[in-house]
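Step 1: inspect the first sequence and its tokens.
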Amino acid sequence: MMSEANPLEGVSPRHNFVIGSLFVSASLSVVASALIIYTLADGTLDFFSSDEASLLEFISGRDWVPNGRNPSFGIWPLLSGTALIAGGALLIAVPLGVSAALYLSEFASQRTRKILKPTIEILSGIPSVVHGFFALLVISPFIQDYFDATYFNAASAIIVVSAMIMPIIVSISDDAIRAVPREMREASLALGANRWETASRVVLPAARSGIVASVLLALARAVGETMAVTLAAGSVASLHLDPLREVQTLTAYIAQVATGDIPPGPATDAGFAVGSTLFVLTYTANTLAIGATKKRFGRKPLSIRASIGKLFPSISFSRSNIDIKEMRKASNYDPLLPTPLDMKRRSMEKLWRRTIAFSLVLGVGFLLILLQSVISAGAPGISSNFLTNYPSSRSHLAGIGPVIIGSVWLITLTMLFALPAGVGAAVYLTEMSRPGKINIFLRRTIQNLAAVPSIIFGLVGLFVFSRILGFGLSLLTGSLTLAMMVLPMIVVTTEEALLSVPKGFRDGALAVGATRWQAVRHHVIPNAIPGIATGAILSIARALGETAPILFVASLFSKTAPTGIFDGFMAMPIQIFFWTRHPSQEFQDLAASTILVLLILLIILNGIALLIRNRAEARRSW
């Protein structure tokens, strides 16, 4: 964190230039947020200024028919589809995610935790287009055959979206549960509670604010999911809550605009109004999540005594101690022979431990089935010709050579833009900025930017970089779009790396006359490089797997590899998306082969990040 100011600071123009540059980096999140708001506001105003649209119909209308002679733009069918999929996904993911987090934190051995936690993280790193492929070609046919559903249906989207948001709930809830003071567990166990009673009635209520935050963040992620619901749920906007029928969500309509399925005119401009609605929903959920991490909902957190009192309501507490006799009587305690109540409690503990462990089994099982499906469909198609050939309308000649090169160009340019800005912003906020309203404002802006649905960044890329700045459908437009999206991730991971460096490193440098910037540059940043590198690699992995942000700006008909930043490009996620939608089984198999290549690259990147983190922890001397 920031140390006391050095009296020599501020006298050097070079020092002031560095501070100013770092402040500009931190302010880029504000610029990105302003571009998002400007893009959505301008497009929304254009939509409502047309003769075919009105604000009253948009808010209260029950029909969404953007095409035809008499178009109707009532938002409720899209809202109902979004609510159905997001709500259904939460119904599945919340109990499974919280149960998995509770098992990992309270019952799993250290060895089991080291295996299962990275497995859940792998599930979170699978691109959404891969989930959409799995839903469309595996889950949807199963639901259609056994539940008399339409081929495109909300149920398949609900299943894959729940799998996508479950890691968010597990990760954040696990952190919240592990942050509960150890004394609360020890006090509960000392009073005769078993581990399950302690975990469920003492630890879990104490961690409820973090769990609520994880649910709200998962809700924002579910509402903003694009590719999986676009592929699985369909494109028919109708006002119903039947999971076995086809629906269309807010994000799916914006994606339909991006792919050119909607003709130019008010129907295309409606994508900006839909995007504004989506932005408001996700912003609200994220704001509530941030509030949940800062204060408890409703009442104050339970003290140790209050928590134990809820577990053993017949125990009487004095001001200074607990009546041990009454505690033993309340828990039917017998030091020599277990009572029937003790045996029942032990049986219930075993039952519940197995139940919450099963939630992890479901998550791992979903991952294994997904991988098995992709490998069985895609492995036979991988060859040297497939990896080097150009995309073709004839499946036996089609390949992904230019697509791979386009992806490499795209992520390289993205990191050239995002990495210096993200690291600079984190250094300013963590090391150079004084606590105050500006610091709080910048942090809040970065947090909100992280929750913006990825498809919204695509609208900004199309409107600002492609049209206003004139970059067109180029690598430069795509990389700037992705840089805005991954910037918050780089800032957060870099901040964690900087905060992990002990305060003594800063104090020692300041004590011998160094400025704050000299202390940060020569002592803090070098020791934080492993963490910064880990965050950068994870950001590369996310940029490599994203589809929705570049759906607006990729060149679908570009068959050659790009050679400059103003060339058109194709990336692997986009190619997967269009091949998955192809009616021919041969092209769907090509999509599976491309998914396999993409997953191998992502696993390699995540493995490198994990290796860097483990080596840094092993070599750390503090």
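Step 2: inspect the second sequence and its tokens, then contrast the two.
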Amino acid sequence: PVSLITTKAGETVIDFGQIMSGWVEFYCREKEGGEVFFQFGEILQDGNFYNENLRSAKEEYRYISNGKERWVRPHFTFYGFRYMKVTGITELRLEDFIGRVIYSEMERTGKITTSNWKINQLFQNAFWGQIGNFLDVPTDCPQRDERMGWTGDIAVFSPTALYNFELSRFLEKWLRDVKAEQLPTGGIPNTVPVQGYGFPATMPEMAVDWWGDACVLVPWALYEATGSLDVLRMMYPTMQKYVKACCFWAGFGIGKHRYIWHTPSVLHFGDWVAPDVPKMSQWQARSKYTATASLCNTSGTLAKIARILGKTEDAAKYKELSRKVADAYCSVLADGNGKTKEEFQTAYVLPLYLNMFPENVKAKAAENLVKLVEKNDYKIGTGFPGTPYILFALADNGHADTAYKMLLNTQYPSWLYEVRVGATTVWERWDGLDENGECPIGDDGTDMMISYNHYASGAVGAFLYRRVLGVEPTEAGYRKFKFAPVVGGGITEAEGKVGTPYGVIKAAWKIADGEMTMTVAVPVGTECTVVLPSGEEKVLGSGEYTVTAKA
């Protein structure tokens, strides 16, 4: 614990300083029959204990003393919390309490620090969000009455997750569950293991559009990180059936419209929790954009996997499918000249990141995205499907300055807004707390359902590793990798490490007096391409190197 609080309401609350998943051990000194009662929450409201965002989850622990002094902890449960409300302790001593953080056993492999403390805190927030939700299955949140393996969250977060930890056992175990839960139609349930939670998780049309994509994107991320073909072989039939199901639900149109998603009259997620529009129906209405890009991505990724596995006919088939979907997106959902029919950030981010626009219009599309970002004062406007990729879409298309302005923005909504108002994990919604630290109010006049430990938007971690630090695999398992920092935003130095099957990559760069110094440790059996600020490349074998160049 970091402090003991007596709230305005007269409550006794212990602050552990960090939103975490686990439990509290305490030393009980109470007399026989004395009842101790703990309640857990993530935030305070108006200085008082708060747990309304947990919905029906109790998150509480009750203990009746037998009169013997002893250390006590709960069993067969865990809590998501930072604050604990205490009643029944006669003489409270902070040294009698220990917060125990729990998560599945996994080796930490990655870390980043920079010259910007806010970016460092953002990295830590994403890290804590991961360990708070990697308990047996990759959950969406660890605190409220959900705690389920939502597929969409891990689909977008897996590249970041695999930088932070070695996850072969953890993710392969979960992917076996995905394989087992696949529907006869080919669809993937929204949550694995299946728990519909009011959603028709057994309906195939519910299981596409980045959520079901987890059956393709997670194995691919695992392959990129480890180089192991086993997970690709295991999941290949699942991926094939899934892409076939996606084609079915996109295939009701004529001509190019056959490759455009047609949203049926059931719940669909679309641009989930995009902050530029307030209603679920508006996020859902964007499904024709997000799900069409999704089909392009999954079929294109499956083409690469088929080629790697030696299935040349399949590779050609899926590559052609991906090409046709991309062409349909650019000519049906856009004007053929790089402008989307409906303009919102995700509508540009996905085709830019996935290289769906033809080369002759890609620059125009990127400029249109920049205009939207500038008009929005460099604030984020993407939901789950676009958030992991927007900084890449900008930086990799000649607009690194715009990407850094968005990354470093501290106004709502932004990653660093959460940091500025004291977040220690990543939120489910960008509007989790206002400037006064208050929860937003829903249309029904009650506090909105919000998780303050939800790692999906922490997928920005991949950008921190791949562009800010600059380390990215160019061959699966990092047998070959590049060290190519994208400098900007006033950040003058960064250092970090990335674990690989060959050993640890250590990389650092620093700018001083107009000169950039880059150091890198290249593991035995690997090859690193260092890209200098001028664009010059140096290919290095195993060893430790320092390279200097004009910044």
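Step 3: confirm your contrast with the notes below.
The CA atoms of residues 64 and 379 lie 51 Å apart. The mean pLDDT is 94.
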